[in-house]
Amino acid sequence: MGKVRSFVVWTAVVGALVAGTPGHAASGGDSEADGHAAIAWVGAVATNVFYLPVKVIYAGLGGLTGGIGWLLTGGDTDAARSIWDPTVRGTYIITPSMLEGKEDVRFIGP
């Protein structure tokens, strides 16, 4: 249970750093100045605690599966890419704009 709690805490910290919260705080402005309510920033970090690990695992498994597919097809890059593109590409970090519906979230890449 301690490892899970530690993982959740570290994921929250990384999510906060990647979401840009510290950079925003350093600018000295309110979160409203960016056009996002404070709750949108909190929601983005909270969402990333769960979303980011799931997306990374999904992408990792897709990368591995694509690599195996590439090997089994004798180096057919198109076959591997048909697995890699949907799994590895896409949204990794949820931003306040995404939560507000201003930007799309693509768990599966284009």
Which features characterize this protein?
single chain; 110 residues; elongated; 5 helices
Quick synopsis:
By secondary structure, the protein is mainly alpha-helical. Helices cover 69% and strands 0% of the residues.
What features would you describe in this structure?
This protein is mainly alpha-helical. Helix content is 69%, strand content 0%. The protein has helices at 2-19, 21-27, 38-72, 77-88, 96-99. Helix 1 (2-19) crosses helix 3. The model is unreliable at 21-31 (pLDDT under 50).
Strand-helix topology:
Layout: H1 2-19, H2 21-27, H3 38-72, H4 77-88, H5 96-99
Helix pairs in contact: 1-3, 3-4
Rounded to an integer in angstroms, the radius of gyration calculated over CA atoms is 17 Å
Class based on secondary structure composition and strand pairing: mainly alpha
What average pLDDT do the residues reach? Answer: 80
Dominant shape: elongated
E-strand count? 0
